[in-house]
Amino acid sequence: MIDLGLSKIAIIGVVALIVIGPEKLPKVARMAGTLYGRAQRYLHDVKSEVSREIELDELRNLSKEVHDTATEFQSDIEHHLSSSIKDVESAWHGDIQPSAPAPAASLGDLERKAKDFRRKKLVRSSAIPAWYKNRHGGKTRVLSGAARVRKFRPGVKSNSSFF
């Protein structure tokens, strides 16, 4: 940008006053201001158009990458699907024996895992850390509301059963 200081602007103003004259100077200054504003708007429009073109080019590249990835993914799926169909057809015709499915987890294992998960979740979500509870003998299990009512109800022993 042009470096115009106060002294340079004053020199330009004095020269313009001498050359143009005092009657026409305000009109010329207004005209110069409007032309300068138009030039700034034009430069701003050109900059925004260039940035739009750059963004459009980036979007085109991104679209191409997505399309290539989708095509690769589709071909991979088609390949796996065709190999699976061939395996099923060969098993149907008796060419090969299908492999045995993996043994499922027993019901006892699932119950044990669920119990451990619930216990760990309750210990984690309580306000006092488990190490503090273990060290100071605090409770490590959370009682439900019904269990607390039964435990602290007067006249009822918590260890006895009704039957």
Automatic annotation (TrEMBL):
Q: Where in the cell is it found?
A: Cell membrane; Membrane
Q: Which Gene3D superfamilies match?
A: 1.20.5.3310
Query: Primary place of residence?
Result: membrane
Q: How does it sit in the membrane?
A: Single-pass membrane protein
Keyword set includes Acyltransferase: no
Is Cell membrane one of the keywords UniProt gives this record? yes
Instruction: Enumerate the UniProt keywords alphabetically.
Output: Cell inner membrane, Cell membrane, Membrane, Protein transport, Translocation, Transmembrane, Transmembrane helix, Transport
Quaternary structure, per UniProt, is:
The Tat system comprises two distinct complexes: a TatABC complex, containing multiple copies of TatA, TatB and TatC subunits, and a separate TatA complex, containing only TatA subunits. Substrates initially bind to the TatABC complex, which probably triggers association of the separate TatA complex to form the active translocon.
NCBIfam families named in the record: tatB (TIGR01410)
Q: Which HAMAP family match?
A: TatB
The family classification in the record reads:
Belongs to the TatB family.
What does the function comment of this entry state?
Part of the twin-arginine translocation (Tat) system that transports large folded proteins containing a characteristic twin-arginine motif in their signal peptide across membranes. Together with TatC, TatB is part of a receptor directly interacting with Tat signal peptides. TatB may form an oligomeric binding site that transiently accommodates folded Tat precursor proteins before their translocation.
PANTHER family this protein is in? SEC-INDEPENDENT PROTEIN TRANSLOCASE PROTEIN TATA, CHLOROPLASTIC
Q: What is this protein called?
A: Sec-independent protein translocase protein TatB
Q: Which organism is it from?
A: Massilia niabensis
